């Protein structure tokens, strides 16, 4: 290519900024990004006195505190208080952004090369230094460690890690990798989280029970079904933080009990509030709820590999036969937002704010549903098996609300209530006709669409395949211009929606609750529960 | 006596072996895959295969059982699949004491409330008090314990703030706080048991009251309280102790619900989560311990008979 005047940096910077709905922060790219404040130049000692002991009810499953091996956001919430990443997720009340965390500056040298300058004098909780070697160690642990990290794919394109000096590290990728910030900070498991090499050496596979990071809190203990205890790291690098002396995550299985404990003041926070308890908590004067629509979507999936849902017209009929208004009220307690297509509202630049009137995607139109039903090969009453389990945000409610709606188009739904593990097994084995599911997506249209609908994908439980959809998504991965990329994803979505392996339902809010004496909580709509700035009044 | 104990111990081992195989087989027969559950919804086939091999779950069923049995007997209980908790510490040092404390407190509470009520209704047989107690006992036995637990939480803990909502404080570390935390769960767990104790006590006491030795005591002019609480009590001990022993299974069952509602980190909650997560090795440890407790208590009941009834003592 002769045209050397292409400014990769600015294209990529703009691209990254737009794609995650970001603004000014990344625009001074050439000069490098300044970490938070001048605090970056000061010795990383906490000046404030830490005080107070917060207890937070953790009602969702926590698998491990090893950031490179966890699969659950409830674990990431705690991991994030113990560790730091190269980058972190920030939120200004309107949009999510990715900022340097352990990095003092983040420079994009060209479209394939990222340069990180690290904060000086940062120590792990075990007293070892957090330097370029530690960063390299952590990234390699994700990329090619043994046992293999399930998040290795996020760094698959990482070609070379160069240690420029003890505090400078350069990452080279095999191709332009705009997904990097999302890959480093992405929701389930954080590939860019830096762990103490000495601790990994010492604990091996048991690192997840003995995590050692650089974060505002040190890990103290984990008693099964009881609590996970953290204490303040007085040497934390952000000045004046943390404010709390101790934090306990109380492991409570029964959300009703957690709500009772919150209302009575026995705990001061709840890491997740199931939808059926939201209204109850809204009525409690001494409790504040945090919750917005996050990057996710729910749907009814249909098994396209066998009758009756191998018939596209029958699937289309289902997609238009579901009364979304009734569903939002009866299944989602009036708290969710109707989903027309998978791309969710926080994905600025890709989410169409006028989608409700655009005619795209799925919505309730019984006439249309009946027209498609009339085109179906089987005109008799069709009996289908709908698997449901007490799992997900609203349990079996979606199934129970939808079943009678499908009777309107001559589909007799046989609801089968399963225990969770069995449900998962049957889904994986494609031993079902219908089931409802929700997909928690990183704030990126590729991660939203491609992994679970690409031909033969691990998460394509529906057995759906469309070469044109695959082609559009693959093409969009390397297109940098946001409107053009959005156009490709919208075209892919339209193919998906028209073929309807799934019927879209809702985008869901995720709630956290605190008693009013908890101050300074910074809500981030990526299901994080950072206690850095939290204090008890 | 020693031979008797020896025989019982041998039986115990046989029972444990059968129980361990049965529970292992049942869990394996149940659909569901621990690897799928621990990996959540987003994982690839390679990750799945790696994890399965790491956990030894790719081995044939019998090989897995034999491997487990060998490890268990030699004291290598291993770690849980997901959280990598040390199973021995978790089950024996953390979960077991919680359940033992809760169970003991519930039985104590049930006896404390149930026996006097049973005795009183036996003495006032067919009176108003007897009818009221009988109705109350029936209601308590029929009341779902998890629902009662939630009611107690919302009224006594949240509304009036008299007790904590949840949590466990070891009474051997802080007795007052321990009892305070234990009050609602122990009450919840003991309710169905109270009803049972009342009825057993009443029936036994009515029968005892018709025995010649009671008439003889009365004839000697012994006061009523002495007739009932000394002569009567001594003779209802056997059915009472037998009931407690036999109902231990019921109590452990109730402990599962009670521990979940009050978020107590005991065996019940551990077993529930382990079964739901198909943590085979953890379930095995829990089942073995529960079976052992059951057998041990039955052995104690057996051994206590000669002390409770002189006629059973061997000469």
Explain this structure to me?
The complex is a heterodimer of chains A (537) and B (315). Chain A is of the alpha+beta class and 537 residues long. Chain A contains 16 helices and 23 strands. Chain A has helices at 8-19, 73-82, 132-144, 180-185, 197-203, 255-263, 275-282, 312-321, 324-330, 355-358, 366-375, 397-407, 420-428, 445-453, 467-477, 482-499; strands at residues 53-58, 84-85, 87-91, 96-100, 103-110, 113-118, 158-165, 168-173, 193-194, 217-223, 227-232, 246-251, 269-270, 287-293, 296-302, 337-338, 382-389, 411-418, 434-440, 502-507, 509-515, 518-519, 535-536. In chain A, α8 (312-321) packs antiparallel against α11 (366-375), α14 (445-453) runs antiparallel to α15 and α15 (467-477) runs antiparallel to α16 (482-499). With 315 residues, chain B is an all-alpha fold. Chain B has 2 domains: 2-74, no CATH class; 92-302, MetI-like fold. Chains A and B meet through α6 and α13 of A and α2, α3, α5, α7 and α12 of B.
Please outline the helices and strands:
The complex is a heterodimer of chains A (537) and B (315).
Chain A (H helix, E strand, L loop, with lengths): L7 H12 L33 E6 L14 H10 L1 E2 L1 E5 L4 E5 L2 E8 L2 E6 L13 H13 L13 E8 L2 E6 L6 H6 L7 E2 L2 H7 L13 E7 L3 E6 L13 E6 L3 H9 L5 E2 L4 H8 L4 E7 L2 E7 L9 H10 L2 H7 L6 E2 L16 H4 L7 H10 L6 E8 L7 H11 L3 E8 L1 H9 L5 E7 L4 H9 L13 H11 L4 H18 L2 E6 L1 E7 L2 E2 L15 E2 L1
Parallel strand pairs in A: 1-12, 1-13, 17-18, 17-19
Antiparallel strand pairs in A: 2-9, 3-4, 5-6, 6-8, 7-8, 10-11, 11-12, 13-21, 14-21, 15-19, 15-20, 16-20, 22-23
Helix pairs in contact in A: 8-11, 14-15, 14-16, 15-16
Chain B lengths: L1 H28 L4 H6 L5 H10 L6 H13 L13 H37 L4 H15 L2 H15 L15 H35 L2 H8 L4 H23 L1 H14 L5 H10 L3 H29 L7
Helix pairs in contact in B: 1-13, 5-6, 5-8, 5-11, 5-13, 6-8, 7-8, 7-11, 8-10, 8-11, 9-10, 10-13, 11-12, 12-13
């Amino acid at each position: 290519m002769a045209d050397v005047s292409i400014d990769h940096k600015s294209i990529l910077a703009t691209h990254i900024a737009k794609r995650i709905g970001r603004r000014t922060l990344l625009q001074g790219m050439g000069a490098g990004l300044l970490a938070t404040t001048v605090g970056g130049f000061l010795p990383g000692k906490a000046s404030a006195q830490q005080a107070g002991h917060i207890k937070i009810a953790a009602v969702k499953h926590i698998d491990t505190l090893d950031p490179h091996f966890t699969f659950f956001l409830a674990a990431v919430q705690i991991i994030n208080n113990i560790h730091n990443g190269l980058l972190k997720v920030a939120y200004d009340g309107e949009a999510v952004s990715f900022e340097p965390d352990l990095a003092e500056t983040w420079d994009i040298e060209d479209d394939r090369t990222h340069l990180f300058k690290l904060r000086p004098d940062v120590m792990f909780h075990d007293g070892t230094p957090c330097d370029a070697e530690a960063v390299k160690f952590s990234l390699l642990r994700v990329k090619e460690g043994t046992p293999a990290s399930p998040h290795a794919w996020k760094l698959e394109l990482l070609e070379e890690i160069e240690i420029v000096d003890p505090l400078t590290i350069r990452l080279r990728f095999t191709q332009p990798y705009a997904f990097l910030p999302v890959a480093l900070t992405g929701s389930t498991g954080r590939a860019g989280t830096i762990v103490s090499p000495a601790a990994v050496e010492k604990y091996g596979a048991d690192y997840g029970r003995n995590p050692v990071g650089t974060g505002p809190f040190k890990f103290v203990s984990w008693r099964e079904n009881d609590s996970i205890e953290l204490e303040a790291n007085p040497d934390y690098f952000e000045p004046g933080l943390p404010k709390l002396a101790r934090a306990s995550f109380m492991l409570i299985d029964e959300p009703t009990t957690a709500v009772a404990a919150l209302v009575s003041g026995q705990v001061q926070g709840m890491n997740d509030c199931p939808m059926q308890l939201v209204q109850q908590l809204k009525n409690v004067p001494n409790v504040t709820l945090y919750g917005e629509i996050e990057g996710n979507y729910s749907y009814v999936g249909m098994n396209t590999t066998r009758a009756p849902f191998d018939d596209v017209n029958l699937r289309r009929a289902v997609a238009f036969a579901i009364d979304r208004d009734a569903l939002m009220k009866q299944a989602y307690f009036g708290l969710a937002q109707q989903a027309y297509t998978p791309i969710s509202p926080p994905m600025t630049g890709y989410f169409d704010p006028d989608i409700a009137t655009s005619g795209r995607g799925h919505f309730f139109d019984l006439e249309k549903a009946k027209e498609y039903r009339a085109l179906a090969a089987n005109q008799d009453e069709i009996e289908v098996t709908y698997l449901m389990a007490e799992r997900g945000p609203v349990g079996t409610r979606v199934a129970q609300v939808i079943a009678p709606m499908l009777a309107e188009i001559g589909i007799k739904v046989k609801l089968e209530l399963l225990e969770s593990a069995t449900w998962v097994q049957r889904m994986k084995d494609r031993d079902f006709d219908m089931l409802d599911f929700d997909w928690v997506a990183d704030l990126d249209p590729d991660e939203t669409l491609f992994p679970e609908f690409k031909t033969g994908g691990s998460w394509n439980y529906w057995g759906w395949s469309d070469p044109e959809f695959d082609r559009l998504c693959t093409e969009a991965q390397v297109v940098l211009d946001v409107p053009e990329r959005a156009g490709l994803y919208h075209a892919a979505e339209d193919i998906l929606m028209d073929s309807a392996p799934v019927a879209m339902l809702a985008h869901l809010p995720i709630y956290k609750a605190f008693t009013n004496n908890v101050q300074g909580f910074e809500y981030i709509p990526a299901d994080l529960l950072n206690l850095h700035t939290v204090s008890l009044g | 006596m020693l031979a008797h104990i020896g025989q019982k111990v041998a039986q115990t081992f046989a029972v444990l072996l059968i129980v361990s195989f049965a529970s292992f087989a049942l869990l394996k027969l149940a659909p569901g895959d621990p690897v799928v559950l621990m990996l959540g919804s987003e994982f690839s086939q390679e990750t799945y295969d790696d994890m399965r091999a790491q956990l030894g779950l790719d081995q044939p069923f019998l090989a897995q059982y034999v491997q487990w049995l060998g490890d268990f007997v030699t004291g290598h209980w291993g770690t849980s699949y997901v959280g990598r908790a040390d199973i021995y510490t978790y089950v024996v040092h953390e979960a077991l004491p919680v359940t033992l404390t809760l169970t003991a407190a519930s039985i104590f509470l049930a006896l404390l409330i149930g026996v006097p009520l049973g005795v009183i209704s036996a003495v006032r047989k067919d009176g108003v008090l007897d009818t009221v107690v009988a109705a109350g006992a029936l209601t308590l036995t029929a009341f779902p314990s998890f629902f009662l637990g939630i009611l107690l939480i919302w009224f006594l803990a949240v509304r009036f703030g008299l007790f904590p909502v949840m949590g466990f404080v070891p009474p051997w570390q802080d007795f007052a706080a321990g009892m305070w935390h234990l009050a609602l769960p122990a009450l919840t767990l003991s309710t169905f048991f109270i009803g049972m104790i009342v009825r057993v006590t009443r029936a036994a006491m009515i029968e005892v009251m018709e025995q010649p030795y009671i008439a003889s005591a009365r004839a000697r002019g012994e006061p009523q309280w002495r007739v009932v609480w000394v002569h009567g009590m001594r003779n209802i001990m056997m059915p009472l102790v037998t009931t407690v022993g036999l109902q231990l299974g019921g109590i452990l069952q109730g402990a599962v619900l009670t521990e979940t509602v009050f978020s107590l980190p005991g065996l019940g909650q551990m077993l529930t989560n382990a079964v739901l997560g198909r943590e085979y090795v953890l379930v095995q440890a829990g089942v073995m311990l529960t079976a052992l407790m059951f057998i041990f208590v039955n052995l104690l009941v057996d051994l206590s008979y000669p002390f409770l009834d002189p006629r059973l003592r061997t000469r």
